[in-house]
Structure formats: structure tokens, C-alpha cells
Amino acid sequence: MRLIRAFLSLPKISSVKIFFLAILISSTVVNCTMVPMEMDSPKYGKPVSRAEIAQLLLTKSRNAPLDLQGKNLADLDLENMDLSYVQLNDTFLSRTVLNNANLSSASLKNAKLRNVKLRKADLSNTNLQGADLSNADLSGAILENTDLSRADLSGANLENVNFKNAILEQTVFADTTLTQSDFAGKVLRGANFKKAKLIEVNFTRADVSETNFSHTKLIKAKFTDAQLSRAIFTKSTCTECDFRGANLFQGIFKEAIFQESQMQNATLDEANFTEADLIASNLHQANAVRTTFIWAYLSDAILTEVDFSNANLSNATLRNSNLGNSILASTVLLNTDFQGSKLNNVGFSQAHIGGANFKDADLTNARGLDQVKGLDSVKNFNP
User: Fold this and answer.
1) pLDDT per position as a tens digit, 208-245
2) Is 221 part of a structural domain of the chain?
3) How far apart are CA 115 and CA 295, in angstroms?
4) How far from 319 is each of 5, 185, 283, 335, CA to CA, in Å?
5) Under a CB-based contact definition with an 8 Å cutoff, are residues 178 and 197 in contact?
6) What is the number of structural domains in the chain?
7) What is the secondary structure of 241-309 as a DSSP string?
8) Cα 48 versus chain centre, distance
9) Could you report the per-residue pLDDT of 291-322, keeping only the tens digit for each?
10) In what order do the strands lie in the sheet with 197-199?
11) DSSP string of 136-168?
12) Could you tell me if residue 264 is inside a domain?
């Protein structure tokens, strides 16, 4: 800056001085704004060439695998190369082309594979624990028996990927698109599908407890008998999804859209459906003990034989829904809208119904109405 001020203080500046001043300013800006690329980091050392790798592979064997751990293999073209059993832990492979490569039984624990090309690559029995595969192209790759626990697949292309018997605990699938992927029976505990698009994905009997599905778009996803305890579906959209028999204990579904979802016999105890949209969904024989449905939309829903004991449905909308034979014992129903609903044989013992609207509701054989609270402020109540 002192040099720039000196130039500006001169009474007359020649064209040559102006030229050098422009260069000086440009170099100053570049030096201030440029961030060194990761591949220049001394951690990875001098880049290894394809020729060097090919030469080293001539000496490898299953009993004495090639060790390239911590090496810099970024930006190389290693397409079709046989790298099976090679040790690549902590290796820097970002932007490297590995299409059709054989990486079976290799170890890439904590490797950097951002933007790597792995189309139709064989990664079966490979260790990818904690690997960074963000924005990688894995279309058609074989990930059978692969350990992807704690791996980051954010934004990756996973079209036609085979995940058979893969280990997927705490794996990150954020911003990915998965179509007809089969995770049936798999353990994905603590995985992250935030902002992903899941089309006809099968999670039947899978353990996806504590998994993050917030802001995710799910279309005809199947969670039959799945373990989803403490899973997060905040602001997710689920169209025609199947949760029959699933365990959603303490799940978070705030502002989620679950229209026409199948949730028969599901466990919803202590879950939070605040402002959720469950219009036309089927919750027949579900358990919703101590569950929160504040400001939720449950119109035209099938809510027969549901246990809502100690639940909170304050300000919820249940217009034209069928709650026949359900239990609403000790349930908070402040300002709940039951217009046109079927409430025959419903148990209301100790429920708080202050401000609720029962216009055109069918209360035939409803039980415990003599024990409810807030009856004096109820609207259109004609049992």
C-alpha cells in the first residue's frame, strides 16, 4: 500500500508508471484473495503419476498389497486400472478418473475422493469408512459388502448403485437422488438424507433410527416395519409413503407433509407432528401416546382404534376424519376442529376439550364425556 500511495503522490504519472501500477494492484488483490488448493498441501506431498503407479502395481500381490497411503493421486486418469487390495487410506484422489477401475478389497479409509469419477467401478468389499465422496460420480458402481460407515456421499451420483450388504451407519446421503434403491433390512442408523430425493426407495425392516430426513422429498418410499425412532423428518415431503408397522418413537415431523401416507399399526408414541400435514392418511390401530399434533392437519384421515392417550391435538384440524373406537383419554383437545368427524365409541375420559368444535360430528356411544374438562367452552357439542 505504501508503494501505491507513493505512485499517487507523484504530480505526473507516465503511461509506463500507470502500467506497472496496474500490475502492482492486481498482484496485491490476487495475493489477498487466493486460497491455496488442497492438492498443494504439504500433507500429501509430490503428486504420483499414472506411470509410477503402473510400475508399482507390477510388484503387488494379495499377500503384499501396494501401499499408497497418504499419497497425492489427484487429477490422474486411472480408468480401468486394477487397484484391488491396494492400501489407499488418507490418500488424496479428488477429481481422479477411476471409471471401470477395480478397487475391490482396497482400503480407502478417510480418503479424499471429492468429484472423483467412479462410473461402473468395482468397490465390493472395499473399506471406505469416513471417506469423502462428495459430488462423486458413482453411477453403476458396485458397492456390495462395502463399508461406507461415516462416509460422505453428499451430492454424489448414485444412479443404479448396488448397495447389497453394504455398511451404511452414519453415512451422509445429503442432496443425492436415489431411485428404487434397496435398503431393506440394512442398518442406516444415524445416516443423513437431508435435502435428498428418494423415489420408490425400499427401507422395509431397515434400522434408520436417529436418521436425518429433514427437507427430504420422498415419493412412494417404503418403511414397512422399519425402525425410525428419533428420526428427523422436519419439513420433509412424503407422497404415498408406507409406514405400516414402523416404529416412529420420538420422531420429529414438524411441518412435514405426509398426505395419503399409510401408517397402520405404527408406533408414534412421543413423536412430534406439530403443524404436520397428514390429510387423508391412514393411522388405523396406531399408537400415539403422548404424541404432539399441535396445529396438525388430519382432515379426511382414518384414525380408527388409535390410542391418543395423553396426546396433544390442540388447534389440530380433524374435519371429516374417522376416529371410531379410538382412545382420547387425558388428551389435550383445546380448540381442536372435529367438524363432520366420526367419533362413535371414542373414549374421552379426562380429556380437555375447551374450545373444540364438534359441528356435525357423530358422537354416538362416545364414552367418558361426563369426565371431560372445558365443556363450558365447547362449540356445537350435541352428544
Assistant:
1) 999 999 999 999 999 999 999 999 999 999 999 999 99
2) no
3) 43
4) 75, 37, 15, 13
5) yes
6) 1
7) -B-TT-B-TT-B-TT-B-TT-B-TT-B-TT-B-TT-B-TT-B-TT-B-TT-B-TT-B-TT-B-TT-B-T
8) 36
9) 999 999 999 999 999 999 999 999 999 999 99
10) 177-179, 197-199, 217-219, 237-239
11) -B-TT-B-TT-B-TT-B-TT-B-TT-B-TT-B-
12) no
Task: Decide: 275 and 296 in contact? Cβ < 8 Å.
Answer: yes
Structural domain includes residue 14: yes
Cα end-to-end distance, the chain, whole Å: 85
What's the rounded Cα separation, in Å, for the pair 182 and 158?
12
Domain boundaries, position 7: 2-34
How deeply is 95 buried, as exposed, middle or buried, from its count of CB atoms within 10 A (0-12, 13-18, 19+)?
A: middle
* pTM score, whole prediction: 0.85
Short-list 340, 338, 383, CA closest to 363: 383
Tell me, yes or no, whether 25 lies in a domain.
yes
d(CA 175, CA 61): 39
For residue 24, the tally of other CB atoms under 10 A from its CB is 13
